[in-house]
Amino acid sequence: MATTRVDTKDRRGRPAAGDPADRTGRADRADPPARPDAPPRRDRSAVRSLLRLWPYVRPVRARWFTAAVVAVVASCTGLVIPLVLKWIVDGPVADRDPRGVWLGALYLLLIGVAEALLFGLRRWLVARPLAGVEAGMRAELYRHLQRLPVAFHDRWASGQLLSRGTTDLMLVRMFLAFPLTFLLVNSVTILVGMIIMLVQDWVLGLVLLVPAVPVMIVCWLFEKKYALVARQAQDQVGDLTTVVEESVLGIRIVKGFGRHRSQARAFHELSRTLRGTELAKARLLAAIWLVIVTLPELAIGAALVLGTVRVSDGELSAGTLVAFLSTALALRWPIDSIGFLLAMSQEAATATERYFEVMDAEQERERERTPESASAAGTAAATATGDAEAEVVPDSRPTADAAEGSSEAAPDSRTAVGSASGAAADPRPAADAAAVRAGEGAGGGEPQGTGGLRFDGVAFRYPDAPADAPPVLARIDLHIRPGETMALVGATGSGKTTLTALIPRLHEATAGRITLDGTDITAMSRRELRTLVAVAFEEPTLFSATVGENVLMGAAPDAGEAELARALSVAQADFAHDLPQGTDTQVGEQGLSLSGGQRQRLALARAVVGRPRFLVLDDPLSALDVHTEALVEAALRRVLAETTALVVAHRPSTVLLADRVALLSRGRIAAVGTHHELLRTNAEYAWLMSGATEAGAAGTGAPTSRTEKTEKEAGR
Amino acid sequence: MTAPPTTAATAPADDGAAKRHDGGGDPFDRDALPAPPGATTALLRSLLAPLRARVAVATLLLLLQQAAVQAGPLLVAYAIDRAVPALRDHDTGPLVMVAAAYLLCAGLSGGLQYAFIVASARINQDVLLDLRGRIFRHAQALSVDFHERYTSGRLISRSTTDVESLRELLSEGLQELIAVVLSFVYISAMLLWLDLGLGAVAVASFGPLYLLVRRYRRRADRIFQLRSTAIAAVIVKFAETMNGIRPVRAFRREEANDGAFRVLNRRHERTNGDALLEMAQYVVGSRLVANTAVAGIVLWGAYRVASGSLALGVLAAAVLYLRRLYDPIDRLGMFLNSYQSAAASLEKIAGLLAQVPSVPEPSAPRPLPERRSARPGREVVFDEVRFAYRTGGEVLPRFSLTLPAGQTVAVVGSTGAGKSTLAKLLARFYDPSDGRVLLDGVDLRDLATPELRRGVVMVTQEAFLFSGTVAENIAVGRPDATREEIEQAAKAIGAHDFISGLPDGYDTDVRKRGGRISAGQRQLVAFARALLADPAVLILDEATSSLDIPGERAVQRAMLTVLRGRTAVVIAHRLSTVEIADRVLVMEHGRIVEDGAPDELIAGTGRFADLHRAWRDSLA
Predict the structure, then answer these.
(1) Mean pLDDT throughout B232-249?
(2) How do the domains of chain A map onto residue ranges?
(3) Where does the record place Basic and acidic residues bias (chain A) (predicted)?
(4) Which residue of A has its CA nearest to B136?
(5) Is B467 helix (H, G, I), strand (E, B) or coil?
């Protein structure tokens, strides 16, 4: 089994990042002992894992090495003590010389003081630096995680991430402080001790050397087994963390259904599994202790017997025997401790492995293309092809689709065109951009507002989706003119939220391109892009900060009270002023809990506070009552007048905020038009907006048949 | 070297935390829930009490093991003082005895060690299992308003890092302590037996050692408290960021977060370093005492051997014992380390466990009466109910309200009017400050949880999905439901189609490939869950807010059939819901300002008539 695992790793190079996350969760709870994929990958040796820590240790390497040297010296100082003893026994004691005894004791005292100070020095040297290494690694992890694709976070339970950031890093720090140093120190100590003993009496020394080989073999075997179990235990701790987290986040559901008992049972199952793994770990550890304790002890016994014989024969002085045994006993601790030092190292190795599983996941990278070259290309295309069609092409296209009523056929024909010419070479977006720019220029609008927001042949499928699954978004062609507000309407699960996530590049479109004022969004840095685009999410998340800070997150750093007040009033979130400490009231995880409607309005305020050029609102008013909704709409209209906006909408009142509406259906934009146009001409839209019941049950087939009907009507 | 003296002088225990929140008064803010005095020890004792017998066995094993280990030097003394002279007289008897005894001791110490490690691991793991379970169960029993204040990050840190530090104490520390104490006792006894004078010197050295240990304990105690608070703050920030990664990214919070995290992380780093330095001081001190004692004993012993009043073998044994005596001093430090950090953690855990659920389970539960009719619904009465937060601030002034069995009641009103509070009182997420909420005449506070949840189920706007399959998520409503019943519930609510479209249908893991489920779909799952639970009273708090209109219609159609005869309270901003309601309550500032049949109210001139008109217009 081990070999197959090794093969997998060598081919892949590193573990598939999905695996550990996949392993979490209820599947395990349902069937805890099975855990089919439980044996962790023995991808790399512990040593190779641990070597990866080097970059983090590097900054403190001087201190660490000094400390290690100090520890070696201190430990060897301890070995001198038996020699002094020997000198006392064979010298002053044998000679009955009391003054010599004083001298010997003085030596002992000096050595003792030196040893104590050296050990203290070692700890002092590494205390702060190692705390720093742990903190540094944690900060790196946090930094890195914040920059990993959102898709990564979709896959990984945050409990698993958290356990890497806490327990695992503590293990790493402890490893650097103890096992790493002491494996070195103990090896040197044992070596020096052996040499001392061999020099004193090589026969006895050899006797003590005998168990070394079996002990080493056992340690090696043990290391292999222990690694497996240690990894398993750590993953199980992660699973446990996930259950705790979910049971807290879902507390209302757990309570609402009185499910805390079954939740507790699930937790109990998992912790029992963990207990089993920990016990297996303990048994391995006990076995290694058994070997490590017994074998050297037997050797010492043999040496004692042999030594006694030789002392009686006069071949050996009593002092030498005392010193010899004293040294052997002094070496017991270094030898004994190897067992748990190895265990700790092994745990640290798996902890390191787990840490790097996350650190190896690739951050979102900016594409190579620079903004300059991209926009230059765009402009060139515009000047080359734009002028001729500029007046005609732009926005007649989507409405034409709707009028034709051939919502199914039209995109396909375009697909053919698109694939023939290739998305990048498709001249149309550039042409539109040029056209609009011309128009705007004449009208004297904002100079930067040229081109609007354009989706051009955009497709998206989740990177981890099964190969045979249809893409979430098959081909999106949509143009939102500068200053226009477009509502996005579609059935539940049609991909509206996914579509909005593509604009700030929370997910990356898998094909086609999205342009803001003619600039491909992949050509600008994400920072820049996200400064241009503000989003209000479906689930309004507030952070542990004051209300004011939460809202001003969406604004430029220099924004102040005035902007805050304006945004709060737009979002009808003036309740914030009435909170205990006004806009300085703490909210979020660690603060006052607000209602869904209140959070939603603050999230909306956050989105509009920075007067972004592009605004994406995902069902921004769902939690508001009719009255508040009307007020927000009135205020929002003024904001929307100044920006280019895409608003996901579920109901007519929200749709009416928009100038035009796009209907998303089966991964395509099926129709674009004003609310009233679509209501008349598009059956699916009418169905979505009124819930018209004439078709009976809400099946997926129903809209299509009605579409056909509408086609006929439209044709008439 | 450790904390800045100014803060140390003024705020001994929690300066780090106090600085963070200058409000400071709330124990929740400081992450230091008060535990009654002695609660920590009581907790530890109650954890170990059921395992008393096994603890005794483990201790016995260790006792024997130490005896076997500590026999070594004695055998050395015997060999030098007896076997050597005997050999010279050609008597091999003593030597054979030494050899046999050493063999026996080696075998015993190894075997007993094995047995002890396994036995103690069992104890440790059982204690941890118990403790983890207690924390979890207690956290689950605590009321919703507790969770709203305590935050998930802290709870996670209680049941992970804090439990972990107890694990360290138990699995490494405690074993160390017993071994250290035992070897102290054994070795002191041996030394005293070998030679009273030498032994007395060794025992005398325990005095300064004890003082050192005490000083270390005192100082480390404070540091470990601070460290535990610091790591909890790190965890809270970490968890919050990862759970809100989308807005973090969209609003470019990465750098600001890095900064905020750095501050918290630094604080932990500093306390961590302080703890390690404190340990360094202790190690130097104890080593100094130990090595001085060794030098003293050797001096005196050698002097006496030289003057002929002490046998050489005795001195040799004494010296060998001495080295062993002070060897575990470092380990004692390690124990103290893990003890301190575990004590700090245990105190936090005890503080959590000491929280009394503000919505406690009844001590003498009453059953619900038999239904009065064949219909599943039950009557709900709010009897002189008033609700205010403990911090003050009245949400619902005193009111009374009766909802007859089988009635569907819509509650409307602006955000913050108290609709959700009303629902939470009915679902017993909160208990009223005054008055009673009755279900068929029985106070909700008198109902055992299973009975209560058969009676009342609430579906909220936040439709949280647990990791696991879609089917498992629906089955939360009724864990013993068959697959057929699960699908039935999903079909009734119009969720069947989308679920069948998922890669593995009902068996799709919501966290795995292809398992992405939109907010609207999650609400459908939540609905199916509630239907499956089959309660007498169903509360829907904004439960359709993320659905599109057809979805909402489907749900309403389902409710017309499924809710028939059930009592239902529906809170919705969109008045389409009202179409299925028998009765409408309009709330404003915590009061019910209108109450009547929908048609009646619409025809009138009140708030609801206005709202309804506005809503009609919005549908245009």
Answers:
(1) 83
(2) 47-359, 381-541+611-627+638-693+701-715
(3) 1-10, 20-43, 360-371, 706-716
(4) A264
(5) coil
